[in-house]
Write a structure and sequence with these properties.
Order of helices and strands: EEEEEEEEEEE
Shape: globular
Largest sheet: 11 strands, antiparallel
Number of strands: 11
Strand order of the largest sheet: 1-2-3-4-5-6-7-8-9-10-11
Helix content: under 10%
Number of helices: 0
Structural class: mainly beta
Radius of gyration: 18 Å
Strand content: over 45%
Distance between the termini: 61 Å
Length: about 140
């Protein structure tokens, strides 16, 4: 059997899983799997991006925050050999990240973009650092 896309439906005929190209306008071409809830909202996606990254994302249900971006957790192995886990809040702001930098050091960072200027604190073996953006005071 050879298919370009496989759609698995639930007992009521609703698409619940899509396997194949998951192209979205304005994004890098991707091939993977998407799982939808019974109402058709994406809740999980895993994809190989044509830029070389491998991405897994977990989405919150609609109506539980800013619906423009319902992602809450992303797990990425990027095209340059790096990696990160990103946590987004209900406003779609990145509040925490665990990542591997260019020198192969692991960092845990916490962000608060409600402050002016925004504040980012990160922890790693080299120590603790506080980074403040140069935004409006």
């Amino acid at each position: 059997m050879r298919v370009r896309q496989l759609i698995v439906e639930d007992a009521k005929g609703r698409p619940r899983m899509v396997l194949g190209y998951l192209d979205a306008p304005g994004n890098v071409r991707r091939f993977g799997i998407r799982l939808d809830d019974p109402k058709g909202a994406e809740r999980f996606g895993m994809a190989y991006m044509e830029n070389g990254a491998m991405v897994m994302g977990f989405d919150a249900p609609p109506g539980t925050g800013d619906d423009r971006n319902r992602e809450r957790i992303n797990l990425v192995a990027d095209e340059k050999g790096g990696a990160h886990i990103r946590f987004l809040d209900r406003r779609t702001s990145e509040v925490s990240r665990i990542y591997l930098d260019e020198q192969n050091r692991a960092w845990l960072s916490f962000s608060d973009f409600t402050q002016k200027p925004a504040s980012i604190r990160r922890y790693g073996l080299p120590g603790e650092e506080v980074v403040r953006s140069q935004g409006p005071q």
